[in-house]
Amino acid sequence: MTAPPSDGAPYGVYTPAYVEAGRVEHVAVLEDGTRTAITPPGETRALESVEPPPLPPRVPDGPTRRVPLGRIVAARSGDKGGTANIGVWARTDAAWRWLAHALTEEKLRELLPEAAPLRIERHVFPNLRGLNFVVDGLLGEGVSSSTRFDPQGKALGEWLRSRHMDIPEALLREGQE
């Protein structure tokens, strides 16, 4: 976007699709180069929805300070076609208790306005003290067709961490001890 226009070039667009396992050759290639055919499963089960795990108890109310979210959480992000994926996790159990209730799909829409009109799914991972957000369509048709400054979504996690939220002061002190 910062260079003069150049000649057109072909590009690919990633589109997720389902292919029956039996239609794809399954092969294990061993260290010595030997190839071993693997029989695909004769039957697979359809994915089913599962109930989200229970959230931890809320952090008690108290004074807050408006600071970047990254003061108490880490993040990693990326892409699969036009879909962005943002993983966020807390460094402490107390921060997790706050994060699980504070960073909802609605709050993510507020913090990342470019995602507001898009479909967002939130997945909760209590054993990892983490949340994962899947944002459909944020990257257009994917890396090769996106006009975003960050077409792979690699910086989305840091962009989210830079956004300010009202964070309990007790959690901010916890990180300094």
DSSP E strands, number: 8
Please provide the ordered H/E string of secondary-structure elements.
EEEEEHHEEHEH
Please state the structural category. Answer: alpha+beta
> Cα-atom Rg, whole angstroms?
21 Å
Hey, roughly how much beta strand do the residues contain? 15-25%
Largest sheet: 4 strands, antiparallel
Share of helix among residues?
10-25%
Cα end-to-end separation: 45 Å
What is the helix tally?
4
Which runs of at least 5 residues are low in confidence (pLDDT < 50)?
none
Task: Please state the average pLDDT score.
Answer: 86
Strand line-up of the largest beta sheet? 4-5-7-6
Anisotropy-based shape: extended
Describe the structure.
By secondary structure, the protein is of the alpha+beta class. It has a domain at 64-174. 17% of the residues lie in helices and 25% in strands. It has four helices and eight strands. It has a four-stranded antiparallel β-sheet. 20% of the residues are buried.
What tags apply to this protein structure?
177 residues; alpha+beta; two-stranded antiparallel ribbon; 4 helices; 8 strands; 17% helix; extended
